[in-house]
Structure formats: C-alpha cells, structure tokens
Inverse folding.
C-alpha cells in the first residue's frame, strides 16, 4: 500500500511581516525621494545657471531645508529601530517628573515661536520609574504634533496629574482635529491623515509610532480623543507601579500668549 506524507505550514504571519517590510521600504523611499529630487534640482541649477548672490542664497536656504528634512527622517528611523530592537533593553531610573515637564513646556514654546498660547498645569509632583530620555521623546513628539497642527492663535494645554491608576500626561490643542476613522491608525509608521499638509508642517510620519513603542516599553497606553475642527487630546497613561506621588508643592507656569 502506497503511503504519502503531507506537511503544511501556516505562513500568514510570515506573509504579513513580508508585506510590512515591503511597505516600510516603499514608504522610506517615497519620503526620501522628494527632498533628494529638490536637492538634485538646485545643485543642477547652481552648476549650470549664472545666478546673482540673492538667488544663490535662496537656493542654498531651500537646499538646507530639504537636507534637514532628510536628517529628521533618518534620526526618527534610528530612534524607532532602537525602540523596536530586542537587543536594546530600556535603561530605567527614577526621576522627578516636574523638571521633565518644564523642559517639555519650554520645548513647546520654542516650537510655537509665540504663535500659540501654551499652558502647563502640574497637579501633582511625582517620581517616575522608566526611561527618562524615552519618555521625553514621547512627550516631545506629542507636543510637536500639537504645535504643527494648531493654527496660529490657538491654544495648547499640557497637563500632568497622578490618579489611583498611575500618572497621566495630556496634550490638548485647538487644532484642526482628526476624523474618527483615522484615529486607530495614527500610530502606524508613515500613516498620515493628509500627506500634503504633513509635508508643509515638516512631520516625518514616525512621531506617533515612536510614542507607541516608548509607551509599550513602559506598559503604558495612549488615549486619543479628537474631532475635526474641534482640536485633539492625547493622553499618556503610565501604570501605577511606575509612579510615586510626592507630597510637595508644585510650581505653576503663566501661559504664554500668542504674538
């Protein structure tokens, strides 16, 4: 009697990983193509065309802008790669949250350049256990997005509080808002609600992906509430085991007014 052996293997996950890798390479290539094309065009112009000094300075300024765009993309890619790698464990320490929040507030005001009213409210002092630099990166990306997508004259409110469930850091803005169907995909790499608007504001499309991976490493979560035309609210919730409340007074900052 003839016998046959049939072996099967589920390759669904393998195909999904392959598709993700293919899409990632395509997205990186797409993001680099535009600034490289602009740079190549200006180099050709400077080489072949006799420009006056003012025109040369204009070309060089635009070239520098495109080079910085590529630099930001590469830096975000390296950060994301580091966060995703199993061989890069988080360096945990205990640190005071208030100085970090003051740094994030100063960063928001610097990015805004006086175009928004920026406020910081710290309800509770606390010590946090985790990667300070990683959390600074996550908080900073949320602030950066708020500044980019809030029109001049708008408000950006930063808030920290300690709850029974841990610590909460919130960035609320009066910006353009996000439709409900986009919210579940916001933390995907290179996902953009409006690609053309993102290019104008200078985003890399990786900021919220970095936030997601930082929070995963801290067993934290990101809650997003938004409506088109009504602004957005991004809340980071750190688990209770990472937050120790401190019984000490908290300094408050006066709001910065739009110029």
């Amino acid at each position: 009697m003839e016998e046959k052996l049939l072996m099967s293997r589920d390759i669904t996950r393998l195909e999904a990983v392959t598709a993700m890798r293919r899409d990632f390479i395509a997205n990186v290539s797409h993001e680099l193509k535009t600034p490289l094309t602009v740079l190549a065009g200006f180099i050709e112009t400077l080489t072949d065309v006799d420009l006056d000094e003012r025109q040369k300075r204009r070309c060089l300024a635009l070239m520098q802008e495109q080079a910085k765009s590529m630099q930001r993309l590469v830096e975000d890619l390296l950060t994301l790669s580091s966060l995703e790698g199993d061989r890069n464990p988080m360096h945990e320490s205990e640190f005071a949250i208030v100085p970090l929040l003051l740094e994030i507030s100063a960063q928001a005001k610097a990015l805004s350049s006086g175009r928004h009213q920026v406020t910081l409210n710290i309800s509770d002092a606390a010590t946090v256990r985790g990667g300070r630099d990683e959390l600074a990166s996550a908080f900073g990306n949320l602030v950066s997005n708020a500044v980019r997508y809030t029109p001049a004259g708008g408000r950006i409110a930063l808030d920290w509080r300690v709850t029974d469930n841990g610590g909460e850091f919130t960035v609320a803005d009066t910006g353009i808002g996000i439709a409900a169907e986009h919210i579940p995909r916001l933390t995907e790499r290179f996902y953009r609600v409006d690609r053309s608007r993102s290019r104008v504001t200078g985003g890399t499309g990786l900021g919220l992906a970095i936030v997601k991976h930082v929070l995963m490493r801290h067993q934290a979560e990101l809650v997003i509430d938004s409506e088109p035309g009504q602004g957005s609210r991004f809340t980071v919730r750190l688990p209770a085991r990472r937050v120790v409340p401190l019984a000490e007074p908290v300094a408050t900052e006066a709001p910065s007014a739009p110029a």
